[in-house]
Design goal:
Blueprint: E1 5-10, H1 14-25, E2 30-34, E3 45-48, E4 51-54, E5 60-61, H2 66-74, E6 89-93, E7 96-99, H3 106-109, H4 118-130, H5 150-154, H6 159-174, H7 183-193, E8 199-200, H8 208-215, E9 218-221, E10 225-230, E11 235-239, E12 242-251, H9 255-262, H10 272-275, E13 277-288, E14 300-302, E15 311-316, H11 317-320, E16 330-336, H12 341-347, H13 349-360, H14 367-370, E17 371-385, H15 388-398, E18 405-407, H16 410-413, H17 418-435, H18 444-449
Parallel strand pairs: 1-2, 1-12, 2-9, 6-14, 12-18
Antiparallel strand pairs: 3-4, 5-8, 6-7, 10-11, 11-12, 13-16, 13-17, 14-15, 15-16
Helix pairs in contact: 1-8, 1-17, 2-17
């Protein structure tokens, strides 16, 4: 049988685009199907009235993002396209922000921790440094933290380490519940990305890399894949009611979506994919008529659960990168507390935006009067929730035989970030190449000619 396609990739997020580029570099013809009208997935950016609005929250580091920087170079981007943020991160405590979160000097300054907690922070950092080699962010299931949740691991230290550092970090950036999510991926990731002072962002929007990568690929937008089945020597996919065959398919989508597309037919799906649950994200972007921001100069302000019931983080996007708002104006993103997302989503966008903006007034006085528009972004499946149960199943999933249907996404990498997506894309491509090894170099077009 001659397949309709050589290789199909489902999803034009960073994981799918990374897989597609790697497969094309190895001589294959790749077709990317994307249900949305543009690439990027959870790394989309919107242009509204002169404001550049990121739908997610993206930071990348000069260290620990090897796969991402490789894609940056392949896309022809320069260091100027990925500027350093150059602003601190703060945590709210005692009625004011405290800068220095995520910096080594926090042992001395506290960065929101009480003096009695600083020895615990030093002990935590010392332990992490001594076990750096074992805290492998590519294999968090094998770290000394084992099956500890964030809350369990934090009990070894002063309560402040959980309440004013680990809990707000995990909630703000991943939407995690510290009592449910595993500690190993968080600690490994914090070690890998280094201090906040080294973090960078994309000039022109967080979709810059995805947009550049998609230009050189056969990417078909507005095409909804409804079903994917593995037939051993080939795969089938139903796209908008039409059945196509392909030598291989990469499902670069969240694990719950992959399970729905395969309808549980994959014998490996009952393990790690089924255990890979997701956390939602609810974000309100506030366009302002002036450049307001939390005092202290931080671009991001963490609001711990013990201090603030509705918000988990505020990001001054115009401080993160000046091109996010017109000159003389401001753009602030409000991220909801993970526990409150269900009720906010049920309240509707207008009401949810009003509630979050009202809560933010405490941290950015005058926000209400400066507000000109709000844009709500709700991702029901935003970030993979890496639980101890999922970690226990991950090793066997990675060792499974290569098949005609493979998976990509930050959930595969157990690293909820663009770097996790990029690494998983390269990993999926390698598995597809291994599956097709007997016919290496023979594309669908070449087989037709033969």
């Amino acid at each position: 049988m001659t397949p309709d396609l050589d290789i199909a990739v489902v999803g034009a997020g960073l994981a799918g685009l990374a897989a597609a580029h790697e497969l094309r570099r190895n001589g294959h013809e790749v077709c990317v199907f994307e249900a949305a009208d543009a690439p990027g997935g959870r790394m989309r950016s919107l242009r509204r009235g002169g404001y550049l609005i990121d739908t997610g929250a993206e930071q990348i580091s000069a260290q620990g993002y090897r796969a991402t920087w490789q894609l940056v170079r392949r896309a022809g981007l320069t260091p100027e396209d990925v500027p350093r943020i150059g602003r601190p991160m703060a945590v709210w405590r005692g009625g004011r922000p405290h800068n220095g979160v995520g910096e080594p000097r926090a042992v001395l300054t506290g960065a929101g921790l009480v003096p009695a907690a600083r020895p615990s922070l030093a002990r935590f950092l010392g332990w992490s440094g001594r076990h750096r080699a074992a805290l492998d962010h590519d294999h968090p299931e094998d770290t000394p933290l084992g099956g500890d949740t964030i809350a369990t691991a934090a009990r070894r230290y002063h309560p402040d380490l959980h309440d004013h550092l680990l809990q707000p970090l995990s909630a703000a950036f991943f939407g995690w519940d510290a009592a449910r999510s595993a500690a190993a991926p968080l600690v490994s990731l914090l070690l890998a990305v280094g201090p906040v002072s080294a973090w960078r962002t994309y000039r022109g929007g967080m979709d810059l890399l995805a947009t550049r990568l998609a230009v050189d690929l056969d990417t078909r937008y507005g095409r909804r894949v409804e079903e994917v089945t593995d037939h051993g020597g080939h795969a089938r996919l139903t796209v908008d009611g039409t059945t196509l065959t392909a030598r291989a398919v990469v499902l670069a989508v969240p694990a719950p979506v992959a399970l729905r597309l395969t309808d549980g037919a994959d014998p490996d799906a009952t393990g790690y994919p089924a255990a890979s649950t997701y956390r939602p994200m609810f974000k309100v972007s506030c366009a302002l008529d002036r450049p307001l921001a939390p005092r202290g100069g931080a671009y991001a302000l963490l609001t711990p659960e013990c201090e603030e019931p509705l918000l988990s983080c505020l990001i001054a996007d115009h401080l993160k990168c000046p091109d996010r708002a017109p000159a003389g104006r401001g753009l602030i993103s409000l991220l909801a507390s993970p526990r409150r997302i269900p009720e906010l989503a049920e309240a509707g966008e207008d009401e949810a935006g009003r509630r979050l903006a009202a809560a933010a007034e405490r941290y950015v006085p005058g926000l209400g009067t400066a507000l000109t528009a709000t844009h709500v972004h709700h991702w029901p499946e935003a970030m993979p929730e890496i639980t101890p149960r999922a970690l226990a199943l991950r090793a066997s999933f990675l060792r499974r035989p290569a098949r005609a249907v493979e998976y990509a996404g930050d959930w595969v990498a157990a690293r909820p970030s663009s770097e996790g997506a990029a690494r998983s894309g390269a990993f999926a491509a390698a598995r597809v190449l291994a599956h097709l090894a007997p016919h290496r170099g023979r594309t669908a077009r070449q087989e037709t000619a033969a």
